[in-house]
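INFO batch 0412 | record 1 of 1 | parsing
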Amino acid sequence: MKFIFLIFFILLLSACSTSRVIIPDEALEPLEASKVTLYYYSADKDKDASGNILCSAQGLVGVESVIAPSNTILKDTLDLLLKGELTAAEKEQGITTEFPLPGVRLESFDLTEGVLTLRFLDPQNKTGGGACRAAILWAQIEATAKQFNGVQSVRFEPEELFQP
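INFO prediction complete | emitting tokens
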């Protein structure tokens, strides 16, 4: 009998209590826009002492951009890089990009233990085309991705992408 009374008392207490979750006003504010850096290429900054183009990350130039409020800032940043939208002023400074590449898009990504795996779709095989070109495209994406906390290295899938 005591057992039944105890259960009744517990049920009565739980019915009388109400639980509320209080959300502070600042948590209701919309996400803020974020400043990010997109890495493009300048052949003028990528030359050896003899003036030969090196096709290296030395030629990368960071261009600051603002990303709309988002919970997917890494993906949105890479998508913006892939659009290849340079301003007239950036082009006048010798900054270039081969993006956009027709059909190329970021399908998904995964960050595990510091390794960011980017899965791209490239139905028209536009990510290849010579060692120099492939290296620069790879470097642009890698540098843009590495600005985010936790990204130590970048892998591309399928592995055939960005190959000479």
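INFO post-check: The chain has one domain: 24-157.
INFO record closed
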